[in-house]
Design a protein that fits this description.
alpha+beta; Glutaredoxin; Glutathione S-transferase Yfyf (Class Pi), Chain A, domain 2; 2 domains; four-stranded mixed sheet; binds glutathione
Length: 212
Amino acid sequence: MRFYGYYRSSAAYRCRIAFNLKGVTPQFVPVHLRKGEQRSADYLATNPQGLIPALETDGATITQSLAIIEWLEETRPTPPLLPKDALERAHVRALALSIACDIHPLQNLRVLAFLASDMGLDEPALGRWRRRWIGEGLAAYETMLARSGRAGAFSFGDTPTLADVCLMPQLFSADRFGVDVGAHAHLQRIRKSCQSHPAFAAAHPDRQPDAE
Ligand SMILES: N[C@@H](CCC(=O)N[C@@H](CS)C(=O)NCC(=O)O)C(=O)O
């Protein structure tokens, strides 16, 4: 099993947490995003989208972090990352997708590069862009948790789910770009639970072999 990633990529960070939770250790293949290696011919042969992560396994390539994590969940059901009840599963997926579909894509390197090169945004304007969408998205996540009445040590109950696998990398990115989430009590509590969980701690960008 070969996993293509980059230490600071949120989408790769999600997969690393899931691999650790499931006790899977793929061979790591670094793809340096800042050097543009994701657009090399070699890597485009692996993922035509030119995005990481990608996982090669059983003679196939899986792209998209959530597809990789759902494949892991289906092939290695223990410990479960999704609840058994269909409505509860939908809730956990909605939390995860609120980050993976509605916050993260707006922060992508290629989007930011286009805003700078083609739309003329300078660094302060790019910072406003980042903080706006991360701040608004995480505030909505906090409200979703409060309304659900199901948040515990983690986003759903007291064990990690797909929602936390997506949340922790987004909180890392919030810190990196100066988004203050201190007023969000659920997020603060869940962050602490994740930080003290070995699977999350080992997946942190600073602990990866390609960290700079
Ligand atoms: N929806 C995709 C998003 C993948 C993605 O956006 N990856 C980023 C890193 S977090 C990337 O490769 N960016 C390269 C670029 O923008 O050029 C997933 O969840 O895997």
